[in-house]
Amino acid sequence: MSLWFNCFFHDEFLAPLNKSAATRAVRVLAKAPTILLTNPRIGEQLFQFEPREVRRILVGEYEVRYELQDSIIYALRLWHTRESR
């Protein structure tokens, strides 16, 4: 299975306030692709997106929503869990 991680963590909003927190966040989020490649269905399935297989996984204090299509994982959204979504 391959991973196409089409989102990025842009720390401009966090780094000016706390550079060490921004660095920690990037390190935690960098582990998500490895977790998903090892076990792509580890995340909770979000049935409201059917027939697409959209799932969510918590990585540190961030939620990543991703979609499985055949042997590809598409990262759809990423946000801090403190944000109201």
Helix proportion: 10-25%
Q: Could you name the ranges where pLDDT drops below 50 across 5 or more consecutive residues? A: 1-11
Mean pLDDT: 78
- Rounded radius of gyration (Å): 13 Å
What would your notes on this structure say?
The chain has 85 residues and is α+β, with helices and mostly antiparallel strands. It is built from two helices and five strands, in the order E-H-H-E-E-E-E. It has helices at 19-30, 32-38, and strands at 2-4, 44-45, 53-59, 62-69, 72-80. A five-stranded mixed beta sheet has the order 1-5-4-3-2. The longest helix has 12 residues, at 19-30.
Give a short overview.
The chain is of the alpha+beta class.
For the structure shown, list the relevant keywords:
alpha+beta; disordered N terminus; 5 strands
Topology overview:
Elements lengths: L1 E3 L14 H12 L1 H7 L5 E2 L7 E7 L2 E8 L2 E9 L5
Parallel strand pairs: 1-5
Antiparallel strand pairs: 2-3, 3-4, 4-5
